[in-house]
Design brief:
4-stranded antiparallel beta sheet, alpha+beta, Alpha-Beta Plaits, 93 residues, globular, 4 strands, single chain, 3 helices
C-alpha cells in the first residue's frame, strides 16, 4: 500500500466544495481543512506508485479551484492501529 499526503492550495471560494469533491475521489481516504501554508490535506491510498501519479495529476490537480499541490509519499507508518490490516479486509481472493 502506498500512502501519500497531498497538500493543496485552493482559491478561497472553492475550499469547502473542493474538500467534498476530494473526499469523493475513490483513492482519497480522508480530507482535512488546515491552517497555515496549505488549505487542504488529502490522504491518498493506492496499491502502486503508478496509481499515485494517476490520482494526483489525473484527478486531484484537475479539479476546479486547485491552485497548487505538494505531495509527500510515506515510507513507513508508525501507529497503534494496523492500517494495512484495515485496508486488506475483503481483498483476499
Amino acid at each position: 500500500m502506498v500512502v501519500a499526503f497531498v497538500l493543496i492550495n485552493t482559491t478561497p471560494d472553492r475550499t469547502a466544495a473542493l474538500a467534498q469533491e476530494l473526499a469523493d475521489v475513490p483513492a482519497v481516504s480522508e480530507v482535512y481543512s488546515t491552517a497555515g501554508d496549505f488549505d487542504l490535506v488529502a490522504i491518498v491510498r493506492v496499491r502502486q506508485h503508478d496509481e499515485l501519479a494517476d490520482v494526483v495529476t489525473g484527478e486531484i490537480a484537475k479539479l476546479t479551484g486547485i491552485v497548487h499541490t505538494h505531495t509527500l509519499v510515506a515510507f513507513r507508518s508508525y501507529s497503534r492501529t494496523d492500517v494495512d490490516t484495515l485496508w486488506s479486509i475483503g481483498t483476499e481472493g
